Input
Amino acid sequence: MTTSPAHADGYVSDVAYLPGYYPFMAPARIRYVAALNGVRPPAGGPGLRFLELGCGFGTTLLALAASNPAGEFTGVDFLPAHVEHMRREVAATGLGNVRVLGTDFAHLPTDLGQFDIIALHGVFSWVSPETRESIFGILRRHLAPGGIAEVTYNCMPGWASLLPVRSLIRHFAARVEGDSLARVRAALAEVAALRAADIPLFHDQPLAAQLVDRLLKADPHYVAHEYLNEHWAAFDAADVIGMFAGLGLGHAGRATYHHNHVPLCSPPQFGPQFAGLDLAATETLKDFHINAMFRWDLFSATPRETWSPAERVAAAPDLHFRKAIRNATLPHTVKYGAVTAGLAGPPHEELLGLIGNRGWTFTDLFAAAELAAFPPADIVEAIDLGVATGLLRVEGGPVIDPIPPLESIAPGSLDIPLPFNRRALVRENLANEQVALASTLTGAAHEIGDLHAAILDELTTGGSDRLPLRLADRLIAADKHLREHTTGRPITDRGELVHACQEICGEFLATVLPELLRQGIVVRLED
Ligand SMILES: C[S@@+](CC[C@H](N)C(=O)[O-])C[C@H]1O[C@@H](n2cnc3c(N)ncnc32)[C@H](O)[C@@H]1O
Output
């Protein structure tokens, strides 16, 4: 178990956090959002310097390092259990572009150098004001000119009706002996009883009741780190934007794509409410419309500019756009809170018809004969709306398209080139975790479920012969039970299990494996 750091400053430090991959931290995504908002992003190529403060087990940091082998990645965390895990993984995967610093923010070496991206996820709201000052000092000293800080935090108004849940958990946790995990478990049991009794707190505040329902299913390590820290704050966006302005850093966008577009946050009749507002007021008003409780914000010293399409392209020419939804069709409709938005007609039809599974840069799209009827500004707008509505994805480079046809797969005919990915398959063997596999083509990780990871491991070692039977045997050996779709009943009969495995393997071969081949995570060797 973890030894507590000397300078925990009220942060829960007697239990570890939990692993998790966060695609919002991928450099290509951060750079796209900055460019979308007229902020010139740092170059994305070789030498990109990335620092994560409070990186936990480093799931995201290490996956991004493996995906961007020409970049340099540094992770800081003060919990020994996290740091030891990262060091073990770095050694086991041979990642040569990762530096792990086991220290608290206040004692970071001052000769760290400068970084193009400094990310803090799950830190800013959960630490003391003094620790936030240390973070500001790090940003002042180590964010390179033109660099971007990514900061996540709890915000208002979404937390307003949820605050009693936090108080209640802390109330019960304070009355129990034991480590943070034992205290959080005991507290949740008390809160669960109140929820089951539908006391007025939950009856009158359905969002608080829903939160409790989610927490009862959540990993208690998460609950401990979210709720038991002595210091905790849900900010108004304007206040955070003000704090960063004090560092000379302006707001450069939100990593949650659609939140960058006022019409996707607020219904059209409220458009006039936003007229003439400054950035801080706009962001805060958007949060009221969407009842935001969490934000992924970018900050940069580089001012926002209004760009022509050519300038927008020049700011990040390497970004590639590709269909995010297999078999996507138009109209493509999304519902975000009170907003329903749809994409249909030109140029979306022409764009979607063209774009397929290949990644396209803006420059490629401007030159495409199929889009010749549309001015570049319309193409840029259609791409941005496609990204904001989840129709398109943004990547740091081109993927492989077309991919080779796959009929049967002989043993040894598929390879997983990155040691990081080979280790991820073995490490997460049926552990109920998503498995983040690094793609050096996209510069980000791609997550697959643990069952799919087990199938991939089977396929690369033994080929596709008798694959469902082998998967069933593997599940039995790991004492892992699949559940029947509709009833949730555990499948115990072997025949039924093999049938379920046939379905899962079929789905893997039809959808998951092609995507892994496209992203170069799996490659086909000559049979
Ligand atoms: C909620 S976790 C988030 C971890 C990771 N970023 C993620 O999203 O999975 C916050 C992390 O910040 C680290 N942390 C908190 N205060 C710190 C400090 N003063 N110095 C260094 N690390 C700190 C904790 O150990 C923890 O791993």
Notes: The two ends are 47 Å apart (CA to CA). Residues 160-221 form one domain. The first strand starts at residue 49 and ends at 53.
